[in-house]
Structure formats: structure tokens, C-alpha cells
Design a protein that fits this description.
This protein has one domain (22-469). It has 17 helices and no strands. 78% of the residues lie in helices and 0% in strands. The chain has helices at residues 10-20, 22-51, 54-68, 77-90, 110-142, 154-182, 186-211, 214-239, 255-277, 279-287, 292-310, 317-325, 329-365, 374-399, 406-427, 429-442, 444-469. It is mainly alpha-helical and 471 residues long.
Length: 471
């Protein structure tokens, strides 16, 4: 039939728009993910505060923060594989690999992606086993040492291992998610994660309403995690597995090639964990579980706003990497400037809202006296704003195949942790915030600016060379 007489359905129009605007789709899917997370937090957190005791609520929030931090176990492998997939997909046969970057010489196109899929599965299988050993060790030997679990209770142990099971299945599924991200299907991962947050929040709310049990809440989280695994598997089969080659070929890369590149990123992620993600468990460990909830709520709001802004830049990374591979220097430079400017402006606006409006919001949401004071809030907002706006330049530098941030991030993390141990017992919760801000000001903030300028000059020089070559 003549295509002129075929009428497109609204669904056809939607899919066509997605194909033309994958970056924008990734941003909107990220906002869906963030909206799902925030809406479920709005639903569940007040009930947790109301139904559970301060100690139980603190334990639950600390458990959540610990399992959230388990992303550091990837030790840079997830980012490395996703970035390499984006590069290999656009790599033409015979193209040289620049000597001053971390990209690996793979087969081009889907042949190289086939090799990367195979190694991704092996790496994440090992990481899942390692995570299991760490989780058992934490429960049996580390958590009982501090003030987090003053009274041994079997229900805490059962809840811990149910949450552990959730963490393990999600970690193993990451070997498929990083491939989807690398081929530009960021929005599929975000949609799946948003759906998990929605279902997990609703199930947790119902479990808490009917049982008031940490065990039932943890079981609800596990069921939502299983749904995410199913959704990622469906997306992977449709967009990845059908394109993989059955023959591994003669030029297959080795696992050690990926690990060599991932190791510096992993060290950098560990430094980031020490300076940021580990704050809630540290408060519970040093000040007791009752001190956790006010800071957890403030951090939840601040980071939710931060991540909403981060979704403006996160889906852009694979496209920036592909432009580097295609030597489209002008497009890469334009993307870097546009996204960096937008992220900076929006970061200032959102963190101003966090500082000025979140106290009134929490008073209406949960009730007075359950939030951090305005001094703590000010320093948190400043830290988030600087970290997000200046972190954009770090993100683009990493996406370009370079990673000069290993030493400075590790130093920042070690300095932040050391300051925490001294300042938190003396000044309370505000000591944790000061520690991260001081460490970042001395290390990461200025270093991000320096390498952002360096990358901009590199792209400008490459653009000039291309124009000269064309006459």
C-alpha cells in the first residue's frame, strides 16, 4: 500500500519522536524516575515516622543508605562498560584510538558490543558474589559494634537479609543496564527504575500500614526489585540480544582490559562514597539511630532536587562520547557548553528552593521538630549546588575518555571521613556537612574547573584543526 495512505497512530508518532530525540527522552524518563521516588517518599516517610519508634525509623533509614551505597561495589566497571559501548558502537573499522584517552581498541559496531556484553556478565557475576560476602560480614561483625543496633532483634536480621537479596539481584541486573545505557537507551533504564520506585513505595506503604514490621517492608522492596529485573530483561532482549553476534571473533578484548580502565574510576567512586554517600550510616554509627531521621529527610529532599537537575546531563554522556568517536568536535563542544550552562543555572534555583522552602514543607508534611535547623540546611544547599554545577565538567571529562580525578577524589574522601570523625562528635550533624564541604573546597571543586577548561580548549583545538584540513 502507498505510504501516503497509511495513517500513523499516536503511538507511532511517539516512537518516532523518541528516535529523533533520545537525549530529551532520557531526561524526561529520568524525571519520571525522580518523580516516582519523591512521590513515594512523600507517601511512606511520614508513615514511617508515625508508626515506627525513632530507633526503628533510624535503623530503617540507615539500612536504606547502606544499600544505596552498594553502587560503589561496581568499582567503575559499570561506567567503563557503558562508555566503551557508546564508543565502540560508533567506531568505524580501522579507526585509530587516541593515545591520550581510556578507550579500548575493540571490534567496531555490534561485534565490539558483543564482546563487551560477555565480559560485563562475567564481571557483575563476580561483583554479586563479593557483595554477598560483604553483606554477611557487615551484619555479623560490623553493625553490632556501634550504637545502631543497641538491642539485638531477629527481625532486624531478617529485614537486613531481605534487603540484601534485593541489592544482589539489582546489582547483577546492572550488567544489562550498562549495555542499554551505552547504546543510548538510557530512558528504558530510567522508566524501569521509576516503575520499581512506584511499586516498591506502594507495597512498602501497605506493608507498614497493615503490619508495622520492618520485615514486611523489606519483603515489599524485594518484590519491587524483581519487577525491575523483569523489565530490564524485556528491554535487553529487544534492543541488545537480537543484535549480538554468535561468534566471539578473533579480536575479543580481555576482562583485564576493562578492569585496567575501571580501576581508577573505582578508586574515584570510593573517594566519592567516603565524602558523600556514607554520611547517614556514619551519623547512625556515631550519634545513634535517633539522630538519623532529621538528616536523612533533609538529604532525601536535597539529593532528590540534585538528581532532578542531574537528569539534564546524565543522558547526554553517551551522545557526547559518540561525538568524540565520530570526531564531531563542534557538536561535542556545543553540547558541553549548553548542558553545563543549563545545569548551573537550574542547580542554583533548585538549591535555593531547598534552603528557603524545605523547612516549611517538612513542617506540613511530617510535623514540626523533625527536621534539621536552618544553619545545617544552608551548608547542605551550598554543598549540593557547588557539587552539581562544578561536577558537570567532571562528567564531560570522563565521557571524553579521560580520568584525571582519581587521586584528588580519593584524597577528598579520606579528608572528609577524617574530618567527620573529629567534627561530628563535637558539633553533631552539622559536622558531617562541614566535613564534606571543606574537603571538596580543598580538592574537587577547583580541580573540576581546571579540567573543564582543559577539555574545552582541547575541543576548540580539534575543531580548528578540522577546519584547517578542510581548507
Amino acid at each position: 500500500m502507498d505510504s501516503r495512505y497509511v495513517k500513523n497512530t499516536p503511538l507511532d508518532t511517539l516512537f518516532a519522536w523518541i528516535e529523533r530525540h533520545p537525549g530529551r527522552t532520557g531526561t524526561m524518563a529520568g524525571w519520571y524516575q525522580q518523580a516516582a521516588s519523591v512521590s513515594m517518599a512523600l507517601l511512606v516517610i511520614p508513615l514511617i515516622i508515625k508508626v515506627l519508634s525513632p530507633e526503628e525509623a533510624g535503623i530503617w533509614f540507615t539500612f536504606q543508605a547502606i544499600f544505596l551505597s552498594f553502587g560503589v561495589l561496581q568499582f567503575g566497571t559499570g561506567f567503563t562498560i557503558a562508555r566503551q559501548v557508546a564508543y565502540s558502537k560508533r567506531l568505524a573499522s580501522g579507526d585509530p584510538i587516541p593515545h591520550d584517552c581510556d578507550f579500548i581498541a575493540t571490534r567496531h559496531g555490534w561485534a565490539g558490543i558483543t564482546d563487551l556484553c560477555r565480559h560485563s556478565r562475567k564481571i557483575f557475576r563476580f561483583l554479586t558474589v563479593l557483595a554477598l560476602v560483604i553483606l554477611v560480614g557487615l551484619q555479623q561483625f560490623i553493625l553490632p559494634l556501634g550504637d545502631l543496633l543497641p538491642n539485638a532483634d531477629r527481625s532486624y536480621t531478617i529485614a537486613w537479609y531481605l534487603l540484601s537479596a534485593t541489592s544482589l539481584i539489582l546489582l547483577y541486573t546492572d550488567h544489562k543496564k550498562v549495555i542499554l545505557e551505552g547504546i543510548g537507551m538510557v530512558y528504558l533504564n530510567r522508566l524501569a527504575m521509576g516503575t520499581q520506585f512506584l511499586l516498591g513505595g506502594i507495597a512498602t506503604f501497605l506493608a507498614l500500614s497493615f503490619t508495622g514490621s520492618l520485615v514486611a517492608m523489606a519483603a515489599a522492596q524485594l518484590s519491587a526489585g524483581a519487577v525491575l529485573v523483569l523489565l530490564v530483561e524485556i528491554a535487553y532482549r529487544k534492543h541488545v540480544r537480537a543484535n549480538l553476534l554468535p561468534d566471539p571473533g578473533e579480536n575479543e578484548i580481555k576482562v583485564r582490559d576493562l578492569l585496567k580502565v575501571a580501576l581508577p574510576l573505582g578508586v574515584m567512586q570510593t573517594g566519592g562514597f567516603l565524602s558523600a554517600i556514607g554520611r547517614v550510616p556514619l551519623i547512625g554509627f556515631l550519634l545513634g539511630p535517633a539522630a538519623v531521621s532529621p538528616f536523612f529527610i533533609a538529604e532525601k529532599i536535597g539529593i532528590s532536587l540534585l538528581l532532578a537537575v542531574d537528569h539534564l546531563q546524565d543522558p547526554q554522556r553517551p551522545f557526547f562520547t559518540s561525538e568524540i568517536a565520530d570526531q564531531k568536535w563542534q557538536l561535542a563542544r556545543k553540547r558541553m557548553l549548553k548542558i553545563g550552562t543549563v545545569v548551573t543555572v537550574v542547580a542554583i534555583m533548585t538549591q535555593a528552593i531547598f534552603f528557603l522552602g524545605s523547612t516549611a514543607f517538612v513542617n506540613l508534611w511530617i510535623g514540626p521538630g523533625r527536621y534539621v535547623d536552618t544553619t545545617v540546611l544552608f551548608w547542605m544547599a551550598l554543598h549540593y549546588c557547588l557539587g552539581l554545577s562544578l561536577g558537570t565538567w567532571r562528567s564531560f571529562t570522563l565521557a571524553s575518555g579521560r580520568n584525571p580525578f582519581v587521586a584528588v577524589t580519593l584524597i577528598s574522601g579520606a579528608l572528609s571521613l577524617t574530618l567527620c570523625l573529629f567534627l561530628t562528635p563535637e558539633f553533631g550533624v552539622i559536622g558531617v556537612v562541614w566535613s564534606g564541604l571543606i574537603a571538596s573546597a580543598l580538592t574537587g571543586y577547583w580541580f573540576n574547573i581546571y579540567h573543564g577548561i582543559k577539555l574545552w580548549r582541547f575541543l576548540t583545538a580539534k575543531l580548528g584543526d578540522t577546519r584547517m584540513a578542510l581548507g
